[in-house]
Write a structure and sequence with these properties.
Blueprint (H helix, E strand, L loop, with lengths): L1 H21 L13 H4 L15 E6 L4 E6 L3 E2 L7 E5 L2 E8 L7 H15 L4 E7 L7 E10 L6 E12 L5 E9 L5 H9 L2 E2 L1
Antiparallel strand pairs: 1-2, 2-10, 3-4, 4-5, 5-9, 6-7, 7-8, 8-9
Length: 198
């Protein structure tokens, strides 16, 4: 009887060893598959490369601001007023606009949404609301028609514009766009939170 119990115990231990070797998820071990951005080794040009990549800070002393962007993205140096970064079919721009005197951020955003609708083919407004996360900021969310710079195929793009009032009266306008299939709204919010204007 004791021998049988001993053998059963040994079999249970041996059966458990392969499971133990696999490990269990912990705070330091991811439980999901890697994203395209995390496996493209910093190269741009893929269809992925969204805002979920680790952020790095860009500082522009001459324009007096700093903002973070996904590390794999590269700067488009043809943009000299504000800044633009591109990563495959994803991109972001930051510009600074002086609203008419007495114009609040929501009014400016509503007026700007009409212009944006003309600039983006297939524009479909999803929301124009005060940011639930950043006080005083207004967010315009919309879908539009995009064309992949990699494959040439059409896709549905999701875009968000953050209108952020500054102490000097200007509005910082952060636009982030990319394929709807991997758009990360929390990641865009995290980018907006890194803006620092001197």
């Amino acid at each position: 009887m004791m021998l049988k119990a001993y053998r059963t115990l040994c079999l249970l231990i041996l059966a458990a060893l392969p499971l133990a070797a696999c490990g269990t998820p912990s705070a330091s071990s991811p439980t999901s598959l890697p994203t395209m951005a995390s496996v493209n080794n910093g190269e741009t040009g893929g269809e992925g490369g969204g805002v979920e990549a680790a952020l790095v800070t860009y500082s522009d002393a001459s324009q007096g601001f700093s903002i973070s962007h996904p590390a794999p993205w590269t700067q488009d140096k043809s943009v000299t007023q504000g800044v633009k970064f591109v990563g495959g079919d994803d991109w972001m721009t930051l510009s600074f606009v002086p609203p008419r005197p007495g114009t609040d951020v929501m009014t400016y955003a509503k007026n700007d949404a009409a212009k944006v609708s003309q600039a983006f083919p297939g524009f479909q407004q999803l929301e124009l609301i005060p940011s639930p996360d950043i006080q005083g900021v207004v967010v315009l969310g919309f879908n539009a028609q995009g064309t992949s710079v990699v494959t040439g195929k059409s896709f549905t793009a999701h875009d968000e514009i953050y209108y952020m009032p500054l102490k000097d009266g200007r509005i910082a306008k952060l636009t982030v766009a990319g394929p709807e299939s991997h758009y990360d709204q929390q990641g865009v919010r995290d980018i907006a939170l890194t803006l620092n204007v001197k």
